[in-house]
Amino acid sequence: MNSIPRLLMAAGAVLFIVGLVWMMVGKSIPLGRLPGDIAVEKENVRFYFPIATSIVVSVALSLIWYLIRLFMK
User: Could you give the count of Cα atoms lying within 13 Å of 63 in the half-sphere of its Cβ?
Assistant: First the structure.
């Protein structure tokens, strides 16, 4: 099997699993409301910059891609 179809199937499986996990425990994981996220609300302006959430998501995705590359060899 070529590497591109294998990669697409792995990406699809990962997205499916992430979707299931998010659906099951999405309410209990406070992504978007972590300490370190910047939220400023004024009268007519809302500014939100999720620094901590971005770091958590980046680490999780890096770990997932590392594991996929490890098992694809």
Answer: 6
Distance CA 71, CA 66 (A): 9
Collapsed DSSP state (helix, strand, coil) of residue 1: coil
Q: How far apart are CA 5 and CA 11, in angstroms?
A: 10
Rg (CA), the chain: 17
Report mean pLDDT in 10-residue bins for the chain, 73 residues: 82 89 78 86 93 91 88 76
Q: What are the tokens at 35?
A: 């300490």
| Residue 58 per-residue DSSP state | H
Q: Which residues contact 14 (CB under 8 A, 6 or more apart)?
A: 64, 68
